[in-house]
Structures are given as C-alpha cells and as structure tokens.
Design a protein that fits this description.
mainly alpha, elongated
Length: 164
C-alpha cells in the first residue's frame, strides 16, 4: 500500500468476524495510509456503521447494493457525496465530546502527550512539578477509562470507539 497510489480500499465485513476486529483493522490502516475506505456488510448494523464512520471510513454499503458500486466509486473520487462536509464536522464533534471530559489543564497536558513529548519535556513546557503532571495524567486516564497514555491517544484518535 505504501508505494502504491491506491485511492480506495474495500473491506468486506464478514458477519462471523468480530466487529471490534474489523474496526481495529480499519483504524490501523487509516493511521498508516491516506486511503478512502469503503466498508461492505450484509446487514444494516447501526452500531457498526456509526463506529466505522467515527474512526474514518468514507462509505458504508450493503452487499445487496453491489450494482451501485461503480457509481459510488465515481462519486467518492469526485467528492460528490453530499455528506462529506458533515463527516468532517462529525469527527470533530466526536473528538471534542471525548475531550470535554477533561479540565483545561488536563487538555493542555493531553495535547502535549498526543504530540509525543516526554514527561520531562512536558514538565519544562508547562512549568509544573513532576507530581502535578503525574496526578493530571492519572485523572486523564481515569476520565477516559484507559490504562495508559498510549490508549488515551488512541481512544481520542478513534473518536471514542474502543479499538482492540
């Protein structure tokens, strides 16, 4: 995928597969590649659809609508789908919903963690003690219901969808 100029990736979600596994694959692909993902499923699973759009798919299609596929590809390529602008707003809203759990100081700390700063760098940037930073990190992890900073960043990037 990296060296190719692939625009679309079609993922067929087999009903026997674990939904979280499919979402995890989609999330990981989107973290590595700039590709439009079309998710195909045999049922209209509202939870799967909502979570898949939250983490960044471009289109959801039922398998029985396969005759529409060429038309859909063209619309996606030409950015003609009417919900594209709404999708970007939805992703921002989901991110803000997650971050709204945090205090302003915790958000400031989270943004530095998200950018990859080390704890010692954060202490120097924020002019706070090591104990204060540790305490705020614990609060962030508790509020986001995760066990480490890496999980917190992943949860925010996936807009609250739990990725295994």
């Amino acid at each position: 995928l990296q060296k190719s100029n692939i625009e679309f990736l079609i993922i067929d979600n087999d009903i026997k597969n674990n939904k979280n596994y499919t979402l995890s694959i989609i999330y990981n692909i989107l973290q590595l590649y700039n590709v439009k993902i079309i998710l195909i499923n045999s049922t209209n699973d509202k939870e799967l659809i909502k979570n898949a759009f939250s983490i960044g798919i471009t289109y959801f299609m039922l398998k029985n609508n396969y005759t529409e596929f060429p038309k859909i590809l063209l619309q996606i390529h030409n950015k003609e789908l009417p919900y594209f602008p709404i999708l970007e707003d939805y992703k921002k809203l989901k991110r803000n919903e997650q971050l709204s759990l945090l205090s302003p100081a915790e958000k400031e700390l989270f943004n530095l963690i998200e950018q990859g700063f080390s704890q010692s760098e954060i202490i120097n940037i924020l002019f706070k003690s090591e104990n204060t930073i540790k305490s705020q990190k614990k609060k962030i992890l508790r509020k986001l219901n995760v066990t480490c900073c890496k999980e917190a960043v992943k949860k925010i990037h996936s807009n609250g969808v739990i990725i295994m």
